[in-house]
Amino acid sequence: MTGRPAGAGIAGKRALVTGAASGLGRAIASALAGAGARVTVADIDAEAAHAVAEEIGGETWIADFSDTDALDGITLEADILVNNAGIQRIHPLEEFPLSEWRLINRLMLEAPFLLTKAVLPGMYARGWGRIINLSSIHGLRASPYKSAYVAAKHGLMGLTKVTALEGGPHGVTCNAINPGYVMTPIVQRQVADQAQ
Ligand SMILES: NC(=O)c1ccc[n+]([C@@H]2O[C@H](COP(=O)([O-])OP(=O)(O)OC[C@H]3O[C@@H](n4cnc5c(N)ncnc54)[C@H](O)[C@@H]3O)[C@@H](O)[C@H]2O)c1
Q1: Which residue among 17, 24, 143 is best mutated to probe the pocket of ligand 1, counting the most ligand atoms within 8 A of its Cβ?
Q2: What confidence tens digit (pLDDT) does each residue in 55-74 have?
Q3: Of the options 3.40.50.720, 1.10.760.10, 3.40.30.10, 3.40.50.1100, the CATH number for the domain spanning 64-195
Q4: What Å distances lie between residue 39 and 66, 93, 108, CA to CA?
């Protein structure tokens, strides 16, 4: 095989990974740090975020990304943005609380939009940027009782496509990842809910 080694070009880049204190985000943050990126571990869980940052030699940004009013209008300097923070709530549609629907959609759709908005001016100025949105198989397919999650992930696919179209001419790519089940705390926590 020819080509550049994995991680080539990442050394020295500033990477912001949301939900990086656990699961997939932690693995992504660790891989980026391993490739030489300067990683910010952004998470609501301060203790776990500090532990990951210490482990990989990164910085932390402790924040509740469902508080989207606080993200509106901010500017961020990052070369790589990974929108990964996520949660799950399981209810039949006719019982789904509006508060939980809004929480999921703020955290998993509005926050990625606002963080993208915050990093794009700097990426455009430098002519380079990478935005990676952690979607899900539920960005492509549906399951019962997960209306908020499935809607947010489908919305994130749309945001990804528009960001790719607008960013491309400026050297900014945007891609989504659509994993199936990976045994992390988000999955472990929903086993009982799903059984019920
Ligand atoms: N695990 C899977 O099977 C699976 C499959 C497909 C997609 N995904 C997606 O991958 C992403 C990561 O999931 P995971 O499995 O690693 O979950 P996880 O529960 O292990 O990690 C989620 C992280 O997000 C953080 N977080 C939660 N609410 C937050 C908030 N309000 N503000 C800031 N941070 C917050 C948590 O503290 C945690 O560190 C999610 O977007 C999820 O939807 C996971």
Answers
A1: 24
A2: 999 999 999 999 999 999 99
A3: 3.40.50.720
A4: 21, 39, 21
